[in-house]
Amino acid sequence: MYLISKLFTYIFLPPSIFIWLLVLGGFLAKKFKPLFFGGAILFYLLSIKPITNLLLTPLETIDIAHKKGELVVVLSGGSNPDDILKSAPDAFKRLTYGIILAKQENLPLLFTGGGIIKPTEAEMAKKDKESGAICSHIASKLYNVPLLFAKIEDIMK
Predict the structure, then answer these.
(1) Are 56 and 76 contained in the same domain?
(2) Which residues are within 8 A (CB) of 115 and not within 5 positions of it... i.e. 6 or more apart?
(3) Is residue 152 assigned to a domain?
(4) How far is CA 90 from the centre of its chain?
(5) Structural domain includes residue 18
(6) What is the extent of the structural domain holding 22?
(7) How do the pLDDT tens digits run along the chain, 157 residues long?
(8) Has residue 151 been placed in a domain?
(9) Domain count, the chain
């Protein structure tokens, strides 16, 4: 039974089903046979691990040894008011890595909040005594960056 379930997974679920459809199209097509078979081969190659690793490794490898920033900016990813951490799992991972990076490089940490799911990070920070906010015009002066949006409004209200 285990073998049958694995065979079903590899034969009928994506991406294999699309490869089989391209192969079938290659056999049934009177014109464009090489296009169908070439598409099936290309689709297969793009779906196997060695090729995906070969394509993705240059995109995921970042050499920051020679670059020095002025601050670490962590983008928020949602809140969870019921959790003790008050953060969504992915946002918490980003924040944790941001804290580690800020401490390693001895840089200030800027954590952005917002969102459309209530309560937002800003609303939760308002209730926390140890939280604070920095206005965009103050951040502009502190870090010598241009102020792009002087007035940001909440369109959800």
Answers:
(1) no
(2) 76, 78, 79, 121
(3) no
(4) 9
(5) yes
(6) 2-60
(7) 888 888 877 777 778 888 888 888 888 888 888 888 988 888 888 888 899 899 988 888 776 666 677 788 887 776 666 766 666 777 778 878 888 888 888 887 777 765 556 666 666 666 666 555 556 666 667 656 666 556 655 444 4
(8) no
(9) 2
In angstroms, the Cα distances linking 117 to 33, 120, 123, 156 are 50, 6, 11, 10
pTM of model > 0.85: no
Measure the CA–CA gap between 42 and 28, rounded to whole angstroms: 19
Asked which of 35, 60, 85 is the last residue of a domain, the reply is 60
Q: What one-letter code names the amino acid at 109?
A: L
Do the Cβ atoms of 11 and 20 come closer than 8 Å? yes
Does residue 54 sit in the same domain as residue 103?
no
